Amino acid sequence: MLGAIAGDIIGSVFEHHPIKTVEFPLFSERSTFTDDTVLTVAVANAILNGWAYGPTIKAFGRRYPYAGYGASFYQWLQLAEIQPYNSWGNGSAMRVSPVGYAFESEEAVLQEARKSAVVTHNHPEGIKGAEATALAIYWARTGRNKEDIRREIERRFGYDLGRRLADIRPSYRFDVSCQGSVPESIIAFLESEGVEDAIRKAISLGGDSDTMGCIAGGIGEAYYGVVPTEIVEQVQRRMPVELWEIVENFYRRYDKWQEPVV
To answer: Quick check: 228 pLDDT over 80?
Structure first.
């Protein structure tokens, strides 16, 4: 989960200022958590407490109303009921990483990913993006190699993961759809050599940088095992205490990689 949050914070600077290189400062004074972090922590808190995803996501969104939500999600926050709006946006994929870390079978991961998505993103592409991201994380942390992950994601979800970043990057543009950003984020992980490198490569495509960094970073952490300490320290400094405490509690419950730096 820290890999996902790190990708969000690192990518936040470039969301509206796209870059086409992996050479950039990881953190600056403008680096901040966004809706990706808030809703990722919301999903983690729902899992920790056995709460329903919809009310938990709504409560966290209302607690942090200026985190940079899309217009449709922001309208959803204002409604009293939990009513999905048929979204195919990548918001379902960017918040799902705790599911891939917490559950212990493919079936459970897919079920929970779907449940976390459909409270807002009940379009087939929105559901598929969440399922593919969560399953990639589950497979990465349970020892699948990259070629297995590539092949199985392509088979199950129909994403084209045979492309290369060098070919995608020149013409790639900002795209908030699951179908237009989740495959590219997974490819960034597949071509990476570490968590930081996965985040850098996702951001270097020049798209929805915080969300793509979030997706690639989440898979990267599951595969490589730990987020570098210097990145964790920077992340902690930029997060509200209450969100960080939930991250700590999640790691204590699902202690598979590292204890966060306190």
So the answer is: yes
